[in-house]
Amino acid sequence: MTHAPHTVVIGGGIVGLAVSERLTRDHPGRHVTVLEKEDGWARHQTGRNSGVIHSGLYYAPGSRKAVMCRAGAASMVRFAREEKIAHEICGKLVVAASDDELPGLRRLAERGRANGIEVHELTPRQAREHEPHVNAVAALHVPSTGIIDYSAVCQALVTRLEQAGATLTRGAEALGATRTGDRLRLATSVGTLEADAVVNCAGLQSDLVARRLGADPSARIVPFRGEYFELRPDRRHLVRALIYPVPDPSFPFLGVHLTRGVDGGVHAGPNAVLAFAREGYGWRRIVPRELAQTLGFPGFWRLAAHHARPGAAEMARSASRHLFAESLRRLVPEVRDDDLVPATPGVRAQALRRDGSLVDDFLIERSPGVVNVLNAPSPAATSAFEIADHVVGLLPAD
Hints:
Helices cover about 30% and strands about 25% of the residues. The chain is built from eleven helices and 23 strands. It has helices spanning about 15-25, 65-85, 100-115, 125-130, 150-165, 205-210, 290-295, 300-305, 310-320, 320-330, 385-395; strands at about 5-10, 30-35, 50-55, 85-90, 90-95, 120, 140, 145-150, 165-170, 175-180, 185-190, 190-195, 195-200, 220-225, 230, 240-245, 255-260, 265-270, 275, 340, 345-350, 365, 370-375. An eight-stranded mixed beta sheet has the order 6-7-5-16-17-18-15-20, sandwiched between helices. The chain has a six-stranded mixed beta sheet with strand order 9-2-1-13-23-22. Strands 3-8-4 form a three-stranded antiparallel beta sheet, with helices on one face.
């Protein structure tokens, strides 16, 4: 007597839930179990981001990020329409605030067009037609960028999974796995499961979970906290949609930006500072073992040495609302220090190699019976359905 194939997906963020939904949709004879260590869904990266549907502007042509993000923006909008989830394709501006940023703006326009994205180069006057309060010597307008409620996307995925008969288990942590024949015996904090395949979408914990599952991942997760503010309600009129700076080529993050959410609020941020725990959402949150793992990793010190100057600036901005506001004033000069109200922070799970290089693309690795999604930072939420299709294609056939 044969059993129905059983796949266990570890992680209840948007990528794990999207993988699970694709499995139940495309392989209805396969049973799917989702394990989430928290008591709710989308508690970490998914539920703590800016809620942007990215266009694919920034990513190297031909990379997984570029290809999956562009396709993912379309599939995410289709899903939102089907499920009646709040979203808006509002477009965004990338702003050169000074002449020395113009070459970077032009390179960004070239990259966007190489990725097949509609990009319009604007004069200062044209930029202010989109964002009347912006400071720009030039700007790019990207019409395909949008906003969405990703937590609502996750809840809709959970509903689909429940209707498909999947097993959804919260408060369950993956502890280890052993192979028995062609199956995996997965130890969890709530018991033992037998599985034909396991998909690790554990985000901030993904490299640790990969090791528990018997893999030797090629990268280590180093957590970077992103701190956000919100504009006070009476100052939200300063931002109509999304305003981004030209990325600093010497630093691997986009820089603080202003994003209007589907609820009408305006987020400002994030910066990027080392977190002292994988889920270190504040300076006081320190897990000595996790901090020691980061500080004992040679790749971290190589990264820190290479980016010492911008890294120090990020730390200073983290400690000073005035400096944070100064960064925003380069984009929107009317922003005042007291316009900023602290908002929910996030932590980015950034994969880092031993030589100090950041993994710049989605990183997905296989070991026998296991698929490990090891690097899925932004634009992973936008690309969730494309990542899911790719991961499902890597699993053994039924």
